[in-house]
Design a protein that fits this description.
It is a single chain. The protein is mainly beta and 287 residues long. It has one helix and 24 strands. The strands form six sheets. Strands 2-1-7-8-9-6-3 form a seven-stranded antiparallel beta sheet. Strand 4 and strand 5 (50-56) form a beta hairpin.
């Protein structure tokens, strides 16, 4: 098998499973095939039902490892420590040539080391591992980032009149070519008055009803189950600032739609030098 797996457990310890000893991965299940849950509603006297939405179940992941080496007991002990369910949620990385994706997953049980001559010997041992990804989506391993600011400098030496000191740099297009909507993490930097990020494609916006000073940094997450709005102090301490969000927006915190998203940044102060940085990872239903 050409694909390589790297699992980093909740303690930050990693194991590489590839086509080379000592840990050879021979079978992988769960790269796709997640069950969809179709949500419907039915009115009185209605034939059939009406579609509402589809959600995905958790993703089970299973793979078979052939352990090859001179010290099989030590290798078994290492594998068991890495895939220890008590270490909590870890990260499984899938690498196959140019395809690189990752997913958060937790071991469902301690690895199984079956007996029998076909499964174990002096220098080999078969092992099965089962993981569960509570969030079923595969993600890009690295964050994409789109900075937006009030101005891009164009002033250069030597110069000729008329001088161009700068131009507006408050718009960008983000192409979400993943499989589903994706949440964003937005870093607001002052100075700015009521800074606003708008998805011009969908008409949705995130507006901060506050004046940010030149030293302020505000972080916003629109990730399901991890939504927050926090002021980050110079020492790294965080303070909840969810009440700074303009609640008239619908939804209050948007995600990137599939396809192209035209994003703009604005401030009620036309001379604002504030900026934002939009971070995201595209999401996929299979690899």
């Amino acid at each position: 098998m050409s694909a390589k797996l790297v699992f980093t457990n909740g303690r930050g310890i990693s194991i590489e499973l590839s086509s080379a000893p000592p840990f050879i991965v021979s079978k992988i299940e769960g790269l796709g095939g997640v069950e969809g849950n179709i949500e419907t509603q039915k009115a009185p006297f209605q034939d059939g039902s009406s579609y509402i939405d589809t959600t995905l179940s958790e993703r089970p992941l299973a793979f078979v490892i052939s352990i090859i080496g001179d010290n099989i007991p030590a290798h078994r002990s290492f594998v068991s420590s890495i895939f220890n369910p008590k270490t909590g949620i870890g990260t499984l990385s899938y690498i196959d040539g140019e395809v690189k994706k990752e997913i958060k997953a937790i071991p469902e049980r301690v690895p199984v080391f079956p007996s029998g001559k076909e499964n174990r010997g002096f220098n080999y041992q078969v092992c099965t591992v089962d993981l569960l990804a509570l969030d079923p989506f595969w993600l890009d391993p690295y964050e994409s980032s789109e900075p937006l600011s009030a101005w891009i400098g164009k002033f250069k030496f030597p110069f000729k009149f008329p001088v161009e000191f700068g131009e507006k740099a408050n718009r960008t297009t983000i192409n979400n070519d993943g499989d589903v909507e994706t949440p964003v993490f937005i870093d607001f930097y002052g100075p700015a008055i009521n800074p606003t990020v708008t998805n011009e494609t969908t008409g949705q916006r995130i507006r901060i009803k506050r004046t940010l000073s030149a030293t302020d940094k505000l972080e916003v997450s629109t990730e399901f189950g991890n939504k927050y709005v926090e002021i980050v102090a110079a020492d790294g301490s965080r303070t909840n600032a969810f009440h700074w969000i303009d609640l008239s927006a619908d939804p209050i915190l948007f995600q990137l739609a599939l396809g192209e998203n035209d994003i703009s940044f604005s401030s009620d102060d036309p001379a604002s030098t504030g900026s934002v940085n939009i971070r995201y990872k595209k999401r996929y239903v299979a690899v």
